[in-house]
Amino acid sequence: MATRVADAVDEAWHRNGSGGGHEVPVGVAATLSLLQPDDRPAFANQVAAMTPRAYWYQSRAAWTEIVRARTDLVDAISPMISWLFDEPDEPLRERVKATADAALAAGLLDLYKPELRHDADLLGRLLAVLKTRTEAKVNAQVYTPPDIADVFVSLTVDAVKPGQAICEPTVGTGSFFRATAKLLRQRSLDPASMIWVGADIDELALAVTGVNSMFWGLGHQVILYHGDTLARADWVEVAFKRRHHVLRLASEVRAARRIFDLM
Questions:
Q1: Which end of the chain is more exposed for a tag (fewer CB within 10 A), N or C?
Q2: Where are the beta strands (DSSP E) in 49-164?
Q3: How does 106-115 read in b/e, with b if 16+ C-beta sit within 10 Å?
Q4: What distance in Å separates the CA atoms of residue 109 and residue 235, rounded to the nearest whole number?
Q5: Which segments in the chain show pLDDT lower than 70?
């Protein structure tokens, strides 16, 4: 089903206009995936009835709440969602809305039912489809199918303990994180008890990993680094320092807002 939804999003995005980065259709799919409505048919009807402008601002409001709740991921996921906080022209709003409608019609919400969301990897598949269309094969996103990732992890991951770091220097969109989390659950371990450290030179792929970490229940110890790990031997240390800096800034902003509210 993930392939069907990814193809529908890709087709709708390109049918309704030209240009624009991959971050927009990926962000559209991520927004719908994260909303998790209790009544999926009613939600799909509600979205269908929205104007492009209303849908845009609804999406922006949703991400505002998500960012407030997960300030630890802001740095990583911003390449996927920063466009939502610009003021677009009407054609882009219409294109975004048409893409959202196509995603829902193809069954996106069914991929993220509570019992399925830990194993869903729509965003990784979608990014691969988008890049295959527009980029040379040498630059195309390498997408690891879930079944292959599952087999690889089952053969390579030995005994692990809560608090242990799972490190992936070429994390891509997180396929091996998902497979490792699945294996941990099979062993009665909570993935949120681990520390997940990943890096990639593709900032949009890294953003997908950040969003996927929320679907997969990886917890709040997800540290992501954008850059070439071969050129930076201390990338893990740099990633931890960067995360600490972002969290400190967020704390200062919240404190300043509380003071402002008292004035």
A1: C
A2: none
A3: bebbebbeee
A4: 36
A5: 134-142, 257, 260-263
